[in-house]
Specification:
Strand content: 5-15%
Largest sheet: 7 strands, parallel
Distance between the termini: 5 Å
Radius of gyration: 22 Å
Strand order of the largest sheet: 3-2-1-4-5-6-7
Length: 390
């Protein structure tokens, strides 16, 4: 069996399309932006022989050792401008910079790239939940994502669930798709009791509360969570919802009021990443009944902080949580309420879930994500005739 020639990928110049990176306080800095930020931080150490040029417009990003930044003068935070930049200008810029491989970190890349491409697909929510997207972004993703993944040398799926969606809906060969899980930052960990107690006092939090973290939008099933919470006995601890307003969130606030839960359900708004670990640590239970996730980072962060997790049986969430959390059908409000009551009332069960969650979360890191991403780059740069042959 012959080996892949190292000369194929040594000293490769990789371009990273990071125009969805946002450091603004709000939902845009979560999800895909967090993936880009953490991947960029870990990439240089994953392959010292590679050179990286990052294309972005976020001027607050300070970069990392081993990264060259190419800041666009255009306001690509505006979708029409970003689409123009991505399809019309990026191919020219990539040729000018001598890019050997272009990694498009969010669904779509230029169709006339001029070099091999890798594209990361986080989920296919724009197909499953088109009503959650503004028409321009929805149309762009629905048309160009399909063409981008078919054109790419390799496709990175952030979960096995997303890979199966790509195979089923786009007809992509499974052999072309690399499953590369997201990681969890080492700062998400159990914190000293006195630090957590001081945080509770600072925020006016009770000793016990149920926590949700995520953008306030329909796919997260926040209304379903509120309705299940209302079924708990009256001595229930408060429910705290952490996350920025996304879209179609009015129903969430209306449901709280209609169920008479105004004094028990609290909206903490957007929370900076550096503060988020304190919220996880302070909570008695983390509940995340999402209907669809390409990966589902909040349950992983909660487990890494030693917090018991209840999440849904949908899409990738069982893949992330494994046997460490309680899994519930997100459409079954009675089952969700029953699971919440069971975990809240049973201290031994919570302790076991906390221990199991820490063990499960230890298998995910951004360093692993970066190494596996580099492996995908190498596969993309290896001509078919050089791949291992008998």
């Amino acid at each position: 069996m012959g080996a892949v020639r190292e000369s194929t990928w040594q000293a490769t110049h990789v371009g990273v399309n990071a125009h969805l990176l946002s450091l603004a306080e709000g939902y845009r800095s979560a999800g895909i932006s967090a993936y880009i930020f953490n991947l960029l931080r870990a990439l240089p150490a994953a392959a010292m022989e590679m050179e990286y040029t990052v294309f972005l417009s976020e001027r607050r990003y300070g970069g990392a050792p081993g990264l060259q930044l190419q800041l666009s003068r255009l306001p690509t935070s505006l979708p029409p401008v970003r689409i123009f930049w991505e399809q019309a200008l990026l191919p020219w810029v990539a040729r000018r910079e001598g890019i050997d491989l272009l990694h498009n970190t969010a669904f779509v890349g230029p169709l006339a790239s001029g070099c091999p491409t890798v594209v990361t697909v986080h989920d296919l929510s724009f197909l499953y939940f088109p009503e959650s997207f503004r028409w321009l972004r929805r149309s762009y993703l629905q048309i160009f994502a399909r063409m981008s993944v078919r054109q790419a040398r390799r496709v990175i799926a952030v979960s096995e669930s997303t890979k199966q969606d790509l195979v089923k809906i786009y007809g992509i060969s499974p052999a072309k798709i690399d499953v590369v899980h997201n990681g969890v930052d080492a700062s998400f960990q159990p914190l000293p009791a006195d630090q957590v107690a001081a945080f509770r006092q600072q925020k006016g939090l009770p000793d016990r509360f149920v926590l949700f973290v995520g953008t306030l939008e329909p796919r997260k099933n926040v209304v379903g969570l509120i309705e299940a919470y209302a079924k708990l006995p009256k001595e229930r601890p408060p429910l705290v919802l952490v996350g920025g307003k996304g879209w179609f969130y009015d129903e969430i606030f209306a449901r709280v009021e209609a169920l008479g839960l105004t004094g028990e359900v609290h909206f903490a708004g957007f929370v900076p990443t550096e503060e988020l670990r304190l919220w996880y640590n302070a909570a008695d239970l983390f509940v995340y009944p999402s209907i669809y996730e390409g990966f589902g980072l909040p349950p992983l962060e909660a487990m890494a902080c030693g917090t018991a997790v209840i999440t849904s049986t949908a899409s990738s969430l069982p893949e992330v949580v494994g046997d460490a959390g309680q899994l519930v059908d997100p459409t079954d409000g009675e089952a969700l309420a029953s699971a919440m009551a069971r975990v809240l009332d049973n201290g031994d069960l919570r302790e076991q879930m906390q221990s199991d969650g820490l063990a499960q979360a230890s298998g995910f890191s951004w360093e692993n994500t970066a190494r596996q991403t580099v492996d995908s780059y190498r596969r993309a740069l290896t001509p078919a005739e050089e791949i291992h042959s008998v």
